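Changelog note: in this version the structure field was regenerated for every chain. One regenerated record is shown below for reference.
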Amino acid sequence: MNKPEFTAGLNIAMKIPKAQYEATVAFYRDTLGFEVKEEDVSYAPTVSRTHSVRFGPNTLWLDCVDNYSRPDLWLQLHTDDLDAAAARLAGCGIHPCDEVEPLEGLDSRTHWIKNPAGVVHLLAESR
């Protein structure tokens, strides 16, 4: 079996309860002065609205999730071999949890995983 390589992705998603969403968008736009842009969310049926924020070399996604009661932070990872990566992670007790957010219409191969602390990561194959 190949030994997969893991690298950090450029996307960070902040899942925000609906009641706190507008104030959070305003914080990044008005208080901090970052460029904030509303984006399409048709690919993620659990997200009702999203805004992107240039956050240094990263993109911070402010995702409005209507049924959340507290915020959550999600990170992105890349791998050169998704199958080998999934096998290696399974050997360490980390299994895909793709049910956390179905993704529709994406061209890349991905899995959602959680680290031992429960932080969600999107593991995407980069070719």
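Spot check on this record: The first strand starts at residue 6 and ends at 17. The mean pLDDT is 93.
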